[in-house]
Amino acid sequence: MELVNIKDLFRNESEYIGKEVTVGGWLRSKRDSKTFGFLVINDGTFFEPLQVVYGDALDNFAEISKLNVGAAVIVTGVLTATPQAKQPFEIQASEVCVEGNSAPDYPLQKKRHSFEYLRTISHLRPRTNTFQAVFRVRSLIAYAIHKFFQERDFVYVHTPLITGSDCEGAGEMFQVTTLDLDQVPHTEDGSIDFKEDFFGKPTNLTVSGQLNGETYAMAFKNIYTFGPTFRAENSNTTRHAAEFWMIEPEMAFADLQDDMILAESMLKYVINYVLEHAPEEMAFFNQFVDKGLLERLQHVASSDFAHVTYTQAVEILEKHNEEFEYKVSWGCDLQTEHERFLTEKEFGRPVFVTDYPKEIKAFYMKLNDDQKTVAAMDCLVPGIGEIIGGSQREDDYDKLVGRMEELGLNKEDYDFYLDLRKYGSARHAGFGLGFERCVMYITGMGNIRDVIPFPRTVNNCEL
Ligand code: 4AD
């Protein structure tokens, strides 16, 4: 049995009109009378559902009449043009095979449900128009990102999810252990003895693939990672998840400028790709989720991103301190409210903030000549704030060791990383794009929980 996607029927209508087709899908609604009825089915490939007309000539007419919303069916019949009707065509069924009826308490009604309610049924929400659009576009964005890097000969590296190091040095890690916590062996000083553990040392889920990625950039020149990362941050916000995906390119023989050029062209490429390949989904978001989204994205794709140093950004923000909950002064970390002010009010487009104080950035960033700031960049976008964090890396062995000592990092844990600075060190730079924040930005969805199929956030690990 060869099924046709509903999307293909709409995209190549003339090829199918007058011919017999077979379509599988789930029932969105049903109307019937004593001798005939209409089924409206959706197969997840397209927004537009397909209308099916069936009559009492079918052997299982009674069975079809008992179908509830949500039921799964496979329908065969001739695709017939309906120029007078709302929909351009319908199937006149010669066969309706009931794969599985749905119970009458199907939780999705024809009315619009709130996103909060739909989060409580994350196994069924992908059957709604909004979540079909979100997850089709999420899939397309992932594809566009791979395409962007592959077209430029970046090698895709699969970095490990279980690791012994803390890339960001922020201590926000989920520990991985096989020890029985009730009977953990302790050393003499009372701390847990990880020698007895699976790996013989403490390990955690990765917060970033960067350090491993750097080792491959020092062999392949240009690489990227694209995989899950985990952070035990206790941030219950609309843009933080405990499990999220990150894209981390790393380029040898590249500096901070090259890094920002790559980040900007990647974002523009992905936006253009989605606008071109998901026009119906993007029109849907523009109408129902975020009015003005299309205009904004088109503008972003065709104009240059702004650039400002951290020091200049702080000067701008200090003038507006009365508007902020957290007051700004040189040395402070920028909060979402500050990031959004810069990108939405001050520049009205995406902005790169560069050269942050070394104290608020990770140990691996290259120290600038002023000895106070590092060659870091964050890319901020309207509606979200930070979407990308990156830097040129410290490639000088002694300076890197000095920085690690200042921060009290254990050098043995980073032997492999230091070796890169011993054996053919070269300037190099990279960044991390938060995949879900990118999906939020492109779809206009306001909560990270609504762009992740099964979100993991503080106090939430359902399914
Ligand atoms: O700025 P971050 O922490 O950078 C790194 O991890 C570097 N190792 C990246 C690199 O240079 N290779 O994180 C990068 C991005 C952020 O800009 C944000 O978009 C996203 O990852 N991110 C999160 N997304 C969702 N939930 C969280 N808890 C996130 N934390 C960071």
From TrEMBL:
It is found in: Cytoplasm. PANTHER family: ASPARAGINE--TRNA LIGASE, MITOCHONDRIAL-RELATED, ASPARTYL/LYSYL-TRNA SYNTHETASE. Keywords: Aminoacyl-tRNA synthetase, ATP-binding, Cytoplasm, Ligase, Nucleotide-binding, Protein biosynthesis. This is Asparagine--tRNA ligase. GO terms for biological process: asparaginyl-tRNA aminoacylation. Homodimer. The lineage of its organism: Bacteria, Bacillati, Bacillota, Clostridia, Lachnospirales. GO terms for cellular component: cytoplasm. It catalyses: tRNA(Asn) + L-asparagine + ATP = L-asparaginyl-tRNA(Asn) + AMP + diphosphate + H(+). Belongs to the class-II aminoacyl-tRNA synthetase family. Its EC number is 6.1.1.22. GO terms for molecular function: asparagine-tRNA ligase activity; ATP binding; catalytic activity, acting on a protein; nucleic acid binding; transferase activity. The keyword Chloroplast does not apply. NCBIfam families: asnS (TIGR00457), PRK03932.1 (NF003037). InterPro entries: Aa-tRNA-synt_II, aa-tRNA-synth_II, aa-tRNA-synth_II/BPL/LPL, Asn-tRNA-ligase, Asp/Asn-tRNA-synth_IIb, NA-bd_OB-fold, NA-bd_OB_tRNA. It holds the Pfam family tRNA-synt_2. It is an enzyme of class 6 (ligase). Residues 135-453 form the Aminoacyl-transfer RNA synthetases class-II family profile domain.
